[in-house]
Amino acid sequence: MLKVFKYTLIDLARNRFVLGYALLMLLVAQGLFALEGDPTKALLSLVQVVMALVPLIALVFTVVYMYDTLEFTQLLAVQPMRRSAILGGQLLALAAALLLAQAIGLGLPLLVHSPTVAALVLSLSGSALVLVFAALGALIALKQREKARGVGVALAIWFLFVLVYDALLMWGMFTLSDHPIEPFVVPLAGINPIDLARIMVMLQVDLAAMMGYSGAIYKNFFGSVGGTIVAALILALWVAVPVLFAFRVFRRKDL
Amino acid sequence: MRELLILLLACLSVTHVGARTWRYRSGAGASLQTVINGTAAGDTVLVEGTVSEGSIRVDRPLVLLGGADAVIDGGGEDDALLITADHVTVKGFTIRGSRRSNLDDMSGIKVNECRGVVIEDNFLDKCFFAIYLSGVKDARVQGNTVLGEPGEEDHMANGIHLWKCSKATIRNNRIEHHRDGIYFEFVTDSHITGNTSLHNLRYGLHFMFSHRDAYEDNHFEDNGAGVAVMFSKEIAMRRNRFLANRGASAYGLLLKEINDGEIIGNTFQDNTTGIMIDGCNRINVRDNEFRLNGWALRLFANAIDCDFRGNTFAGNTFDVSTNGSLIPNTMNGNYWDRYAGYDLDRDGHGDVPHRPLGFFTLLVEMQPYAMVFSRSLFVSLLDRAERLIPSLTPESMKDDRPLMRPPVRKNRAVAVANKRLFPHSAFVIFHSSFFIPAGMGLNEKWRTSEHSVVLVHPCIFPLGGRYQDHG
């Protein structure tokens, strides 16, 4: 598994897309900090970028990369090694490469321009999103034989998480506003990994507003130590479940 | 009486003929009250040591000076020090042990029905009311430290409490852990300057029915509900700092039924609500800074003819919210960090109006749980659409001449919430100036951030100098 990890990582290091991702994030982050005189405001703009862009890139890149390395994977599969080792090595390498790119592209500018707790949380949530969507991407790529279809599904999933889910949730909230929806609001908001990551960041940047009546319910839950642990667990589940399914699919897959 | 006089040292007074200075050391036989009863108007009594003989009553014009370790301990019966005469000065004491009673308003220093009292440089330690002025004219309360005891609201009273006073000056005091830090009721023509009011259970400063007063350069932080000004006219509020007043009903500044007030040059930071304006007329809100608040400004629809100019709104979750559609107030020439317009004629004002009331603000007003969507892509799309084609937000709520850059302020706000984890090191290589070419017309903005200017060096961008002399 370590060998696969090593060679995949070397391949990824030469991949222009990963480099491009790091540069893009670097440019966006630097640009925002340069354009906004106020680092706090730049951080707020960056939150929106990270919450939309990071899942998209992690998802699409993983899907495309899995298809592109299919031949190499087939070559590996005929060697005397277990299939789980092949996929494990590849996924680890993918995660490592994306996290590294993100650390350079997002972590570094944050560290330089706005070394605050909010920035740290943003960086961590962004990393969690990378892992979640890379895992989802791997599952999609293994499930779909056709590349175009795979990318399509990936885009649909991204769209679902980033926009449709929120729209539906908001619609539900307003339709059922006469009912006691309080017990359902927190869990429903916490299911979507993007929403969850955003809430964690929001608890830092919108702290003053979260202390008010409207934010109290979220603050009380996610603001506590227990809530943070639950949030981390949910994100971990979002990584673990797709990865487990990916292994299952890959083990039985006719390459 | 003769033995008593031996213990006392009489000196000549410097002020006027006949006035004497009495030196009193506690534990030397006589009581301070007997000494005071023996003084004539205009005398000075210098007190040393701990006086714990119950309530002390000053009924003639005296100067009470606290010497080394001077303590007046009321021992829990009534007021520790009760002043009922004109022109009394109390200076340099530690005062404690007033009785706790909601019926009789017992206090550390109580001043009743007189004029010209001076209370200076005292330390009021866990008193019920600390300094209580009732029916006093021309009072001066200055340089005192007033520390209460955290507890339940029922068992707490105000730090500096004025009732039916006029021409009072409250200056450079520090008040912590009381119910209201400073409380004004029926107080006119008075000044509150340079005080610090922290960690009070209710309001840092509380005005009721008090007219023509001014409070300036004060610092209010972490009070249960911030500062409240209610049912008052012609109050001037200048250069104060309202910080970190958080909670569902906490406000940096709560204005209720205020007419003809002015709010100039204040800083509101990290409050759940910066200013709440309810039923006010003709308030002039100028040159204030609103940073990192939940709601910078809650302007109820019953506020009329309020004018907002030259304010800075930056980093707030919501800039403005309201509860109606008719907005008979004006906003002009403020800086909004959310403003997305342009300035083609380069006069420093945006060419298209800014609508500070976002769609999302309204959503949260209608459905508080919608707060969870703050800063999501979905909400920002909705907000953007609403700004282009306003349908739900009131048409009249707009700033026609939004500033492109935050106005320069004389007294800068100190960032409290976003303290850096690490000191700002010289990461010159990663600095923005490397990534944005100098000629992008952004130089104006660069100048606003303190550290950028230095780094735009002609060696890095030979073109830089050519574009930097706008304005």
How do the strands and helices of this protein lay out in sequence?
The complex is a heterodimer of chains A (about 260) and B (about 475).
Chain A: H1 2-13, H2 16-35, H3 39-68, H4 70-77, H5 83-113, H6 117-143, H7 147-175, H8 182-191, H9 193-205, H10 207-210, H11 213-222, H12 225-252
Helix pairs in contact in A: 1-5, 2-3, 2-5, 3-5, 3-6, 3-7, 3-9, 5-6, 6-7, 6-9, 6-12, 9-12
Chain B: H1 2-7, E1 9-12, E2 20-25, H2 32-38, E3 43-48, E4 50-51, E5 56-58, E6 62-66, E7 71-73, E8 81-83, E9 89-91, E10 94-96, E11 107-115, E12 118-120, E13 123-125, E14 129-137, E15 140-142, E16 145-147, E17 160-163, E18 169-171, E19 174-176, E20 182-185, E21 191-193, E22 196-198, E23 205-208, E24 214-216, E25 219-221, E26 226-230, E27 236-238, E28 241-243, E29 251-256, E30 262-264, E31 267-269, E32 273-278, E33 284-286, E34 289-291, E35 295-299, E36 307-309, E37 312-314, E38 318-321, E39 330-332, E40 335-336, H3 359-366, H4 377-388, H5 443-448, H6 452-455, H7 464-467
Parallel strand pairs in B: 2-3, 3-6, 4-7, 5-8, 6-9, 7-10, 8-11, 9-12, 10-13, 11-14, 12-15, 13-16, 14-17, 15-18, 16-19, 17-20, 18-21, 19-22, 20-23, 21-24, 22-25, 23-26, 24-27, 25-28, 26-29, 27-30, 28-31, 29-32, 30-33, 31-34, 32-35, 33-36, 34-37, 35-38, 36-39, 37-40
Antiparallel strand pairs in B: 1-2
What features would you describe in this structure?
The complex is a heterodimer of chains A (255) and B (471). Chain A has 12 helices and no strands. Chain A is mainly α and 255 residues long. In chain A, α6 packs across α7 and α6 runs parallel beside α12 (225-252). Chain A starts with a helix and ends with a helix. Chain B is mostly beta strands and 471 residues long. Chain B folds into 3 domains: 1-200, 3 Solenoid (Pectate Lyase C-like); 225-357 and 394-419, no CATH class; 428-467, no CATH class. Chain B is 10% helix and 32% strand. In chain B, the strands form 3 sheets. Chain B has a 15-stranded mixed sheet. In chain B, α2 links the parallel β2 and β3 (43-48). The longest helix of chain B has 12 residues, at 377-388. Chain B starts with a helix and ends with a helix. Chains A and B meet through α2, α3, α5, α6 and α7 of A and α3, α4 and α5 of B.
